[in-house]
From TrEMBL:
One of its GO terms (cellular component) is plasma membrane. The chain crosses the membrane at residues 24-43. InterPro entries: Bact_polysacc_biosynth/exp, P-loop_NTPase. It comes from Pseudonocardia alni (Amycolata alni). This is Mrp family chromosome partitioning ATPase. The keyword Transmembrane helix applies. One of its GO terms (molecular function) is protein tyrosine kinase activity. Coiled coil: none annotated. It comes from the Bacteria. Keywords: Membrane, Transmembrane, Transmembrane helix.
Length: 470
């Protein structure tokens, strides 16, 4: 259950970070989708529709709709119009109304197509009715002629009943023929073309509907693209990823220092000032690194970065941490053991000179004005081997002497992913704080884990440098 919750938290953290870091990309995709869709809708040829209603009496509309849709009517209308029309045939609100709707570039053309199609249907329906009536009349006339021929062919000695029967048939056929030719046929459909109405095919509401749909699709596409870009980013995607990879807790999230350039860093610093004061974060980290559950605050703390880009931030946090211990009333010594940092190039005697025996420890310690009780020993000139210096007995003796002299010793080493010396120091330190930032690469974090496993080093917690809530 905990593993599932942790995975869900990591997934949520990834998407939150990806959407925040690539929000301009998402916005660009949404704007692009909306712009292309609106342009396509506005630039397409104007479309107008016209609907002609046909009143059909004496018949069910449904079969008439099928008749209008038939190839027979379509080909006849195409012959009238000069091209095969695209129409939609349906039944109207009334039981006896069918509609013929056509679309065209102009209202006049749409009305012409709809009206022509409807009148073609009416003409063909009347023609079909006339043809049916004429076929019936022809059948009756043939029946009369046949009966008369039979009557004339009777022999003189034929029974009178036979002649009477044929005369009755002739009379019946003549009455039916007279009724058919003289009376208006009442049965069957009698379609009449009614009015034609024209409507614009494009409205502003339709454009906004297309724009809203494009914005929704663009948001999904932009979020997916942001996730893909975030997945390809080689850097650590937030503190949740780092804590899960190293299986250690997060002690705090610190805003980037002012030395980091870029608009993103300035935004992160402004967000951090709004959410949490930097001093409160350092105080929380200080309380977690060396809990105040003993009579006197004391111990040694190692602070180091995870990757090559974390050295400066680790040095800053080590300084703020040491200053915080001193201001809390504990005498503190800050040992600079990062020989890749800029201050290691200074000419003042430092740690390397003390380890070599050229300078006494008391002469290398410098009291600062930042806080009472805080002294600093610079790194000095870089040694031939940092690992040999940090794993040697002399360095251990120096730390032990400082622990007897002051309450808290804070050691700042080079990034652990590049220099295994920090891992060796972590074995003897009371607590180790690993600094991870949004500049830390995933492969550097993997090397940290491998180095700790190989050397037996340990990390008590992580301080993440980046946007809060990343």
């Amino acid at each position: 259950m905990n593993q599932t919750a942790s995975s869900d938290e990591l997934e949520i953290s990834f998407w939150r970070r990806a959407l925040r870091r690539h929000r301009l990309l998402v916005l660009t995709v949404v704007v692009l989708f909306v712009a292309v869709t609106v342009a396509a809708v506005l630039l397409r040829p104007a479309s107008h529709s016209a609907t002609t209603e046909v009143f059909v009496s004496g018949a069910d509309v449904a079969p008439e709709v099928q008749f209008v849709r038939s190839r027979f009517v379509s080909e006849a209308a195409a012959a009238e119009l000069g091209s095969r029309p695209e129409v939609d045939v349906g039944s109207g609100d009334s039981t006896w109304i069918l509609t013929v709707t056509a679309s065209a570039a102009t209202p006049e053309e749409a009305a012409r197509v709809a009206t022509t199609y409807a009148t073609t249907y009416v003409r063909l329906r009347e023609q079909a009715t006339t043809d049916a009536r004429r076929a019936g009349e022809a059948d009756l006339e043939q029946s009369i002629a046949r009966a008369r021929a039979e009557l004339d062919a009777l022999p003189p000695n034929a029974p009178p009943q036979a002649g009477a029967r044929l005369e009755n048939e002739i009379t019946a056929f003549q009455d039916a023929l007279t009724s058919t030719t003289s009376a208006t046929i009442q049965a069957g459909p009698r379609p009449v073309v009614l009015d034609t109405t024209v409507a614009d095919g494009q409205a502003s509401g339709t454009v906004w509907l297309y724009a809203a749909a494009a914005a929704a699709i663009g948001s999904v596409a932009g979020a997916g693209l942001a996730g893909a870009v975030g997945g390809l980013d080689p850097h650590v995607p937030g503190p949740a990823y780092a804590t899960r990879a190293l299986r250690v807790p997060l002690f705090g999230t610190v805003a980037p220092s002012g030395t980091r350039g870029g608009w993103r860093s300035s935004r992160a610093r402004r967000r951090a000032r709004v959410r949490t004061a930097p001093g409160e974060v350092i105080a929380m980290i200080r309380a977690l690194v060396l809990p105040a559950d003993r009579d006197k605050l004391s111990g040694s703390v190692l602070v180091c970065g995870a990757g090559r880009g974390d050295g400066a931030e680790a040095g800053r946090i080590a300084t703020e941490l040491a200053t915080g211990f001193a201001r809390a009333g504990a005498s503190t010594a800050l040992v600079r053991a990062d020989f890749t940092a800029p201050e290691s190039d200074l000419g003042a005697p430092g740690l390397s000179a003390v380890v070599a025996g050229r300078v006494a420890l008391s002469d290398a310690l410098t009291v600062t004005d930042d806080a009472p009780g805080l002294s600093v020993i610079a790194a000095g000139a870089a040694p031939d081997s940092t690992v040999d210096l940090l794993s040697g007995r002399e360095f251990g003796r120096i730390v032990e002497e400082l622990e007897r002299t002051v309450d808290v010793v804070v050691v700042h080493c080079a990034p652990l992913g590049d220099d295994p010396g920090a891992a060796l120091v972590s074995r003897t330190a009371d607590a180790t704080l690993l600094v991870v930032s949004d500049r830390t690469r995933r492969d550097e974090l993997s090397r940290v884990e491998q180095t700790l496993h190989a050397t037996g080093g340990r990390v008590e917690g992580i301080a993440y440098v980046g946007e809060p809530g990343a």
